[in-house]
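Discussion board: Methods & Data

I've been asked by a reviewer to show the raw model output for two of the constructs in my manuscript, not just the figures. I'm not sure how much to include, so I'm pasting the format here to get opinions. Each protein appears as its amino acid sequence followed by a line of discrete structure tokens. Is this the kind of thing reviewers expect to see in a supplement, or should I convert it first? Here is construct A:
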Amino acid sequence: MLLQPKKSKHKKVQKGKLPRLEFKANKLKFGTIGLKAAESGTISAKQIEAARQAIARKIKRKGKIWIRIFPTLPITSKPTEVRMGKGKGAVNYWAARIGGGTVLFELCGVNRNIAIAAFRTGGAKLPIKTKVFT
């Protein structure tokens, strides 16, 4: 099941700007080792799920994983071969706006080398550059 909000105030939102750097969610809160975004960008709910599955598979479902981001941004698109105008398209998928330095995933209860390997494979599933940190 993909992550998406149960309820949102507005069905569609304007694009807005990406945050350059993150200063609130840039430290570990739950785990002992984390995966941090090295640059800003948007990450879709599918990409978050793919990274989570890759990490879980690498650590053989031992330890605990925390997902520190949540997709609250509705991304709309119009069907192909539709003329200009006629309003904004329907919501296609949900995404999360990520600033550089945001902690994406956290882990604990796993060997450090296994955790680093897991985060490398998880980071490969994401559209932004990431780094592992403690």
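Construct B, same format:
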Amino acid sequence: MKAALLAIGRFKAGAERALFEQYNSRLRPPLALRELPEGVGSPGEIRAREGAAIAAALPDNALLVALDLGGPAPTSEALAALTARWEEAARPLVFVIGGAEGLDPAILARAAHRLSLGPLTWPHLLVRALLAEQLFRAQCIRANHPYHRAWRPG
């Protein structure tokens, strides 16, 4: 599954970047990361500015998946099934992670799917690594690779 990740904010050297790169390098093919600058102003202005930057960076006909705390939080197996569906859509797949103020309502409305990594609030730079790991896990599940231990009790 060839996919891109649009993310507000820029990585600096550090553990978050290294963790993202570790899991992203395992993906076949890896996510194409494009970082967009953080907006300035009031929370509403920030969301609008960041939303405009995201919209401008989206490829035509993109299948947009918004990382959003209000979205469903599927199991790893369900995410594997979703990635298979998204891949079958034969559209450019783009994941988007907003900034500290969240995603602009226009971007959420444009999203084909919202995806939550659970009810906890995660630092935005760490979400990149969590997403890459879960996409790698989804690839492993789909390939029947033993990385995902479905037999383990919950």
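Answer (T.O., handling editor elsewhere):
This is acceptable in a supplement if you add a one-line summary per construct. For B, something like: The two ends are 28 Å apart (CA to CA).
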